[in-house]
Amino acid sequence: MSVDFTVAIPTYNGAARLPLVLDRLRSQLNTDPITWEILVIDNNSTDNTAQIVKHHQTNWPTAYPLKYCFEAQQGAAFARQLAVRTASGEWIAFLDDDNLPAPDWLAEAHAFSKAYPQAGAYSGQIHGEFEVVPPQNFEKIQAYLAIREHGPEPHRFNPAALILPPAASLMVRKRAWLESVPSHPSLSGKLPGLLVQGDDYEPLLHIHKQGWEIWYAPKIHTYHQIPRQRLERTYLLTLARGCGLATCHLLMVNAQPWQIPVILIRTLLGNIRRIALQSIKYRGRLKTELIPAFEMAFFWGSLISPFFYLRRQFWPSY
User: What is the C-alpha to C-alpha distance for residues 112 and 275, in angstroms, rounded to an integer?
Assistant: First the structure.
């Protein structure tokens, strides 16, 4: 029997988070016309993630099987690759283990796939649910924490400007991924000692390069759980630098050979200018105001990104 959707949940040490996500999936409404399955990808967890999944499998509905697989290579990008290889669905609905789907999440995703057959990938609205009150002006940087609220109308994303959805709640056509995305990702995702982000954008850029459209689907809703520590200064500045470090690499995915030196130079000069303007605008306040400090950390990461890109080209094992 053909499967419409594989809901893929990459997780690392997600034993405490998975039960709530699975309960939300078990409570999905209006799924009778949909054939689907759930696949948990354990990305080398050291907690009892495997036991949590096994426990849920003992009384899980057979109409939408709950499956488990293990990816030993650390990094969300490798977990997603295994999900694509293992999935039976025509569509793979990626869902982070801290992102809770609305009751009609799958039904709305299915409806959108039928209404927009030209889409290779699409994503909906991701709302933040915070353990503590976010800092002032947080909305300026909330997209970096996978919070996306782009209004009520569907529209295409702009990959050329790196305006893309995160993987926290992302529907990808399996055929588009297999035809477009290299089997070994260049950006692996967050690892101990490696700050570079961008692992969720890289596959989408490859998919776009092959002519597929990437869409915003506003009727699809999820709720990203943001704990206290993700709003602390140290975490946010580390996140900002990691996002910045991926800038040059992502710009190169769809670049022609003659564009490479242009991108390198523009990235360097553009970020030198941004750093200078930020320093002038917030003179003496970058140590006390979090959002400008976040922006500055991103600019510094972007400034360094050409050197990171070149190092990866000449020393791929780095």
Answer: 41
CA-closest candidate to residue 173, choices 234, 231, 78, 92: 92
State the Cα–Cα distance between residues 268 and 15, nearest whole angstrom: 42
Divide the 318 residues of the chain into consecutive groups of 10 and give the mean pLDDT of each group: 93 97 98 97 96 97 96 93 97 98 98 97 98 96 96 96 96 98 82 73 97 98 97 95 95 94 97 97 93 97 94 68
Q: What is the CATH number of domain 3-231?
A: 3.90.550.10
pLDDT at 66: 98
- Among candidate residues 71, 64, 36, 65, the one with its CA nearest the CA of residue 50: 71
Helix ranges (H only) for the chain are 18-26, 49-57, 76-86, 105-115, 174-180, 201-209, 233-245, 247-252, 260-281, 290-314
User: Given this model, what pLDDT does residue 188 score?
Assistant: 75
Question: Where do the domains of the chain lie?
Answer: 3-231, 235-314
> How far apart are alpha carbons 68 and 54 in whole angstroms?
8
Contact status, residue 130 vs residue 231, Cβ threshold 8 Å = yes
Question: Rg of the chain over CA atoms, in angstroms?
Answer: 20
> What is the model's pLDDT at position 80?
96
Residue type for 139, please? E
Contact, 209 vs 114, CB < 8 A?
no
Tokens of 308: 């990171």
